[in-house]
Fold:
Amino acid sequence: MEDKNVKRPVKKMPRKKVCVFCVEKIDELDYKDVAKLKKFITEKGKILPRRMSGVCAKHQRMVATAVKRARVMALIPYRAD
Structure:
């Protein structure tokens, strides 16, 4: 039989991530801004998914395009060794 006085751990609801670009009201994302793009890339050089980066769908597409353009221009490596 379980004791009714046993306290269960309280689960905290995770906070909803807010899009960084929507907060700053950024309409265009430049591929030359490598410092901003590095926040959305893993150590291995992969683009972070939306659920991890917290960016909205519209800006996630812009991030992906900017990262791919920066890779072509050799500003960001395709993959880190």
Notes: The mean pLDDT is 90. The CA atoms of residues 18 and 54 lie 6 Å apart.
